[in-house]
Specification:
The complex is a heterodimer of chains A (323) and B (329).
Chain A lengths: L1 H28 L4 H6 L7 H11 L5 H13 L13 H36 L4 H15 L2 H15 L15 H35 L2 H9 L3 H31 L1 H6 L5 H10 L3 H29 L7 H6 L1
Helix pairs in contact in A: 1-13, 5-6, 5-8, 5-10, 5-13, 6-8, 7-8, 8-10, 9-10, 10-13, 12-13
Chain B lengths: L2 E14 L2 E14 L3 E5 L6 H8 L8 E9 L2 E2 L5 H5 L6 E4 L3 H4 L6 H11 L5 H14 L5 H4 L9 H14 L4 E5 L7 H18 L2 E6 L2 H7 L2 E6 L2 E7 H6 L4 H8 L40 H5 L5 E3 L2 E3 L4 H10 L1
Classes of the chains: A mainly alpha (323), B alpha/beta (329).
Amino acid sequence: MGKFLLRRATSSLIVLSMSVVLVFMSIRILPGDPVLAKLGAATEVTPAALKALREEAGLNRPLLVQLFSWINRALNGDLGVSYFSQFPVTRLVAERIPVTLELTFFIILIAVVFSLILAPLSTLKPGSIVDRVIGYFTSLGLSIPGFVIGIIFILIFSLQLQWLPSRGYVPLSQSVGDNLRLMILPSITGGLTATPYLVRYLRASMLEIKQSPFVRTAEGKGLSNWRILFRHILPNSLVPTLTMLGLIVGYTLSGVVVIEYMFGLPGIGSLAIESSFKRDYVVIQGVALTIISFFILTTFLFDVLCGLVDPRLRLTKEQKSEV
Amino acid sequence: MKNALVVNNLSLSVPSAKGRVTVVDDVSFDIPAGKKIGLVGESGSGKSLTAYSLMRLIKDPVQIDKGEIFLGEKEILGMSMKDFRHMRGNDISMIYQDPMSALNPIMRIGAQIIESIRLHSDLDHGQARRLAIEHLASVGIPEPDRRIDSYPFEMSGGMLQRVVIAIALSGEPKVLIADEATTALDVTTQDRVLTLIDKLAAERGLSVLLITHDLGVAAQFSDDIMVMYAGKLVEKGSVNQIFSHPVHPYTKALLDSRCDYTIDVTKPINSIAGQPPRLDNRPDGCVFSPRCEHVQPRCREGVPPLISVQDRLAACFRAEELFHVEMVK
């Protein structure tokens, strides 16, 4: 297991370094001059002053030197300073990331819980009424965009019934109850978009596993259908589904922008949108780096989870050739 | 002698473009307690489906149309699945064709045996584990107390088949079905596994149904042999009767097309002319009549019943006559 972790971690680090370079370069290649952007409407700047500002920011140095000094500072927890608010990027990200992480957590929780109930139910008897009803709902969920669901929810639960607030955020540390009340609608909105993918994937995977000879062996032992489903079929379907879930977590992390914006949640997605409008490159860079890091981290965690479920994945190449 | 298993008029069908077609046709046989019966036939003859019927493991789209199966005193096809589940693995169990895929790949083999033991007894986990180690030892797995924690991918095919056998025996069944149990293994391993099944069956007084397409395996292992062709049981007799003086033309043709190291390599290997009938185009009368060299007009009109001929059972109108021809030779 130690070797397996080491291998996974190494490949994650390689991906991370490549993305760091990519993020850095793409920001430099983008049109627009950060110095001019910072000066904004102030037109009476002499070329000499501009040059001085550029030198101060280190923008006249070769790209590679800039890259390494940026990485060096990033490793020390310094992602630069916003051109506009003058706040350190790390502080901006640190303020916003808990909101996004909490929202993502709830969305994935909803998706996982519903999938673990709905997928086994629909595979118990494929083609049954239960299976078909679940099929209709997942198709519906797949075809309605998240923002439409969100708007419908706001209309019904906030405006009509006035059960739940439609916008705003209260930190967990301030009031758990208020925080959760505000999280309900955004989480369900996101959950409803993520669940159908997972249900369908898990269902297909379970139906495939159901045909395996080892399932027949389990039946031949005299086990009950439920035990076969949860002890034999589900764990074996989990490996491909976990990989899929890892991707869904990643996409949710970066894709909750719309939900955050719709429900007025100050997450990292809203931060990305705000700084894009202002061309605050340093912040965008920091946000991109954060999202990428979390993406890679989740992929790594899900790889490890897969390894825990399926012992065959823990093998190295040499061990594989032995078997 | 008491019968451990009795099958009466079992028929199975599958759907096709022309409606349901019969794949197992009115098969009846019994297995006396403690006997080992070999069921031979080529692929598609319906022998595996017959075996799966005994475990009620027949799945859509295959269907059991009629028949009775008595396991001991109880008829199992009419039973509710819930009731039959208690007999599965307990009164009757099965060794499967491909040991590499017959075990759950992500579960330790010990857990897979313990699961079965605990289902059929009220032992706690520790006791079941000790029993599982004993089972592994009895099927000849070295270092069973260490191997019990192995995953299937860490073991060879021959070892895995021993594990499958251990699982099959963990419920202490009275009837054991071995469906092509040695087909996926290499020849030396095949022989060891077969010897093991033989030994365990003798020790426990099991009644065994051995399903195989390999006549050599059937001859080595069984007391009696049944021959199946195109869903029909065509001949049943002792190993000696079947191999020395077969009376059904199909059995005879099958034996003539055997090949092993004793054959004369300068001569071409015999084969049976033609193909087995397509499922949706079964001939009228005797199913073997289109390929039979002894065919007569009556063979195409009526289905020959499985009747006693010279002390064994055969389904051929000319069986008696052909037996004498054979003896004269």
